[in-house]
Amino acid sequence: MITVLGIATVAAVVAVWFVRRRWIQYVIGATVAFPQTAGLIIGDNGFPLFYLATIVLLGLGIPHVLVALARRNARPDSSRRLAPDLIGIVLVAWGGVITLAGPRIFSGMRVFAPGLGVDSQVENMAILSPSLGNTAQFGYLALGVGFLLLAGRLFPVDRRLIGCALWVSITLAGVRMIAEPAWPHDLLQNMPSFHYATPERLSGTFYEPSVLGLYLVAAAGYFTVKLFEPGWHGRLAACLALALVVVEFVANGSGTALLGLVVLGVIGASVGLVRQMRSVRVSVRPWVVAGSAAAIAIGLTQLPLLYKLTVGTASGKSDSLSFAARTASNLRAWHIFLESCGLGVGLGSNRPSSLFFLVLSCLGVVGVGLLAALVFLALARGVKAHSPAAWGLAGVIVAAVIAVPDLSMPVIWIGLAACLFPDRRVGHSEPEVLSASPLAEFLPGPARQ
User: Fold this and answer.
1) How far apart are CA 412 and CA 425, in angstroms?
2) Interatomic CA distance for residues 425 and 447, integer angstroms
3) How far from 109 is each of 20, 160, 182, CA to CA, in Å?
4) How far apart are CA 394 and CA 385, in angstroms?
């Protein structure tokens, strides 16, 4: 059964495909703000909006791909795409092999089953066996890599792909803070077998506060870099976004957001320091000095409140039973990695409390190496281009490694696409290489660029 938001997603993707393909990244970005909302429900399983949109794009792109193959056109950026494309394809191939073989080779091993929760399995872990979850998680990986192959080929992407996702996420989280009684729970919280969080702590459009915490960390990185770009309109928008992040951070109360912001801040400060040391001319703008001085002054006058929101929150998290259970699940993931001889036990077989340990236990050393190479390549290109998308992606990875063990999170794949394959004409007025309508591919002369 297709849901109301599923119908809206399909209609939006088809409409912009035939009207103006450059807008596809905005539609995709909007779907990423609802990673735990079902666009399609089949039995007891839900299919997220992002992956539904990706399948529609794959179907729409078949004629385009066939025409390109017939003409054997070589794009000028094909050399830049070679490495990430190969890494992604090999990652899917390895994921398919180990997801098919792992649960059978290591059947009977004690694991943390994805659908049973971490806390309840500490004393009574599940027994590994092949399941529908293995197929589903591999399918999400294949579609995520498929989106990377589509991005920049069938439609242009740039940093606004992840920027749109973050804007929609934090805006709707702010709306929920104000209008919780009128929040459309039945419309947005419709994923079967998901236990959505109660409104005591802000979770926005997500099923638990830690996922919103991940998006807050990513938004903090993205919009902080936007502050340093020219143009007062962009800076004003970034200031508004960061104000929303601060307010929602307090309402969210997530240790994931707290630790993620600290780690991302340290990384950002280190990168900035290295760049200043390497530059021939070191200069600091007056507004940066004034803003830093104001932030320090406010911090000195609000030390008790800041302690409560940061150190106090972290202390409460570390003393909780949940922290002990999450630590135990990560430790077990390490032992699964060792017991499987570094191969992993397949996607959907084990769910610890960290993305790193999830990939390590499910895809083994090969999967960790391939995914790390893809992320490193994306961050290297993004940071070199001074792109906010790189810091948005860095925030996602940092927070996911801390406490969001979900490789199927769409924000990971759009962050990679925005950094790996940015449209170099962003902000300029040149004609689009990928024109307003895919029908132009079949037109003669100047209409086909």
Assistant:
1) 23
2) 19
3) 51, 44, 46
4) 14
Q: Look up residue 389 and give its two tokens.
A: 């998308």
Segment 162-187 shows an average pLDDT of 94
Whether the CB-CB separation of 166 and 218 falls below 8 Å is answered with: yes
Helices (H), 253-384: 255-278, 286-301, 303-309, 311-318, 321-339, 355-384
- Shared-domain flag, residues 64 and 108: yes
> How many domains does one find in the chain?
2
Residue 162 has pLDDT above 50, yes or no: yes
> How large is the greatest C-alpha to C-alpha distance in the chain, in angstroms?
69
Q: Are residues 302 and 357 in the same domain?
A: no
Same structural domain, 315 and 192: no
Q: What phi, psi does 126 have (nearest 5°)?
A: -75, 165
Strands (E), 69-139: 110-111, 126-127
pLDDT digits (tens, 9 = 90+) for 434-446: 433 333 333 333 3
Contact present, 165 and 30 (Cβ < 8 Å):
yes
- ∠ CA 161-162-165, nearest 5°, is 100
pLDDT in tens, 250-259: 888 888 898 8
Length of the chain: 449
Residue 108 makes CB contacts below 8 A (sequence gap 6+) with 127, 128, 129
Decide: pTM greater than 0.70. Answer: yes
Residue 354 near residue 345, CB atoms below 8 Å: no
Q: Averaged over 273-280, what is the pLDDT?
A: 68
Condensed to tens digits (0 to 9), the pLDDT of residues 307-330 reads: 455 545 555 555 466 777 888 899
- Cβ burial of 330 (10 Å; 0-12, 13-18, 19+) is buried
What does the DSSP 8-state code read for residue 157? B
Choose one of 296, 319, 342: the last residue of a domain: 319
The whole domain housing 325 covers 4-283+320-447
For residues 449 and 447, give the distance between their C-alpha atoms in angstroms, rounded to a whole number: 6
